[in-house]
UniProtKB/TrEMBL annotation:
Part of the ABC transporter complex UgpBAEC involved in sn-glycerol-3-phosphate (G3P) import. Probably responsible for the translocation of the substrate across the membrane. The chain crosses the membrane at residues 12-30, 71-94, 106-128, 156-180, 201-227, 266-287. Pfam families: BPD_transp_1. This is sn-glycerol-3-phosphate transport system permease protein UgpA. It is found in: Cell inner membrane; Cell membrane. InterPro entries: MetI-like, MetI-like_sf, UgpAE/MalFG_permease. PROSITE patterns: ABC_TM1. It comes from Phreatobacter cathodiphilus. GO terms for biological process: transmembrane transport. Belongs to the binding-protein-dependent transport system permease family. It is a multi-pass membrane protein. It comes from the Bacteria.
Amino acid sequence: MEKRVVFDGKLLPYALLMPQLLITIVFFYWPAAQAVWQSFFIQDAFGLTMQFVWFENYQVLFANPDYYRSMLTTLVFSCLVTFFSLSIALMFAVQADKQIKAAGAYKTFLMWPYAVAPAIAGVLWLFMFQPSLGLVAQAIRALGIDWNPQLNGGHAMTLVVMAATWKQISYNFLFFLAGLQSIPKSVIEAAAIDGARPARRFWTIIFPLLSPTTFFLLVVNIVYVFFDTFGIIDSVTGGGPAQATTTLVYKVFSDGRLGGDLGGSAAQSVILMILVIGLTAIQFRYIERKVQY
């Protein structure tokens, strides 16, 4: 006979939810509400005086060509990091799912980079690719390539893309590996018996069955690129050279913290929040239709 546990206390579910609700309210809803409120004011650098200006901060922002440039930079940066981090992680997960020697050690090594803080990851890549001291940079120069991310915007973008991709591969790898291990082996074996080659089995059976995992990681990676890459950009390029790596989230920091434009920075954060919510809604509205659960 099936036994069920019944809790008599009506307040217990709310008590269990309260810590998470408090964290969400304090660290998300309250700062978001403050950003919306501050975006309608012009403040001094110390935040001591405020003047209500309605939508003037937004008007000035959309009249600034540099803001549209940061939007384009963010678009390119997000597409590159998302594509390469998902592709490389999927390749590693497929290889790690095979029966090979020391598979556990390989999986552990692939997971370690996720424990590295974004700023530390940026510094590691900066040391390797620093034009005068980096070992990798010296090898590139030996090939006749004038590598200098401090002066060349394309080189700087390449460096931050590589650092951000390397940082996110481990996270994607974990979920892809879990998704691969949840696929029934009998389905793959049946396709192999029918004569399907490994590439055909992957694209017609394995990858479609990974679509829920891929969709989830696509949403997470977009959020990661828009927000969590700030530490990498700040430590590697500082948004330069000539704002070539200034993304939307870094522009919020540079205009607000460094430039003292607190109202304009708040307006930028509101627009950034709307963009991320909109992109997430679009993904759930259109891309999720193709997900096979």
